[in-house]
Amino acid sequence: MNILCISDTHGRHRKLKLSKAELLLFAGDMGARSFLQLEDFANWLAAIDLPAERKIIIAGNNDGVFEQHPKEARKYLDSIATYLENSSCTVDCINIYGTPVSLAFRNLFFNIPDDGSIQKYWDLIPQNTDILITHQPPFGILDSDFRKKHLGCPRLFARVKEIKPRLHCFGHIHGAYGVKTIDGTTFVNASVCNDFMKISNKAMLIKM
Fold first, then answer.
1. Among 14, 104, 134, 194, which lies 20 to 30 A Cα-Cα from 113?
2. Spatial CB neighbours of 130, under 8 Å, sequence gap ≥ 6
């Protein structure tokens, strides 16, 4: 299966060139701080030639409408995509789980204090997960900023190590864009924007 991984478009989604794929994963930070911004993203998403069940979307720490107005925000994606928020879906017998939470960062959205309380969210990830979509990177894997400081979550790393999904797609740390395969899991930081909020990376096409 060809899987297109995208994250951190920050409102610049229309500048992307997309390869054809059988499944699209979006790992948050579409830039939906208002309904107007969400509507534009939804219109772009609707034009992608895939059925709704094959476009899997999570929010990120910059997508405030999904935290502040969850019912209204989700309606924008109805019949267009599958929105996951600490929940799962199945496509072609592949179990997919998605969560928007991340460690506290600039007091934004879906932020959890770095006091151990984020563990309850990682514990929700089912053991049989084949594809995991998080906004937060795991610690030590494609999570370094321009200072080479690791900004991933150690507790997420430990949970992923337990579950061993085939694919873990995330974003959040723009400068760590890339792909690595470790112990049977392909890790993708799919951030397409750089730290200056300009599109600098391609949507990542992965074969699974």
1. 194
2. 94, 95, 96, 165, 166, 167
Tokens read off for 194: 């750089």
CATH superfamily for domain 2-207: Metallo-dependent phosphatases (3.60.21.10)
Task: Please report which helix (H) or strand (E) contains residue 75, including its range.
Answer: helix 70-75
Residue 178 backbone dihedrals phi, psi, to 5 degrees: 155, -175
Place of tokens 């592949």: 94
Contact 7, 135 (CB under 8 A): yes
Nearest to 183 by CA among 169, 204, 162: 162
Q: What is the pLDDT of residues 83-117, one digit of tens each?
A: 999 999 999 999 999 999 999 987 899 999 999 99
Which tokens belong to 122? 């990682």
Report pLDDT digits (tens) over 47-75.
999 999 999 999 999 999 999 999 999 99
Angle at 118 between CA 150 and CA 87, to 5 degrees: 110
42 contact partners, CB below 8 Å, separation of at least 6: 76, 77, 80
Cα–Cα distance, 125 to 161 (Å, whole number): 12
Verdict on whether the full-model pTM lies above 0.70:
yes
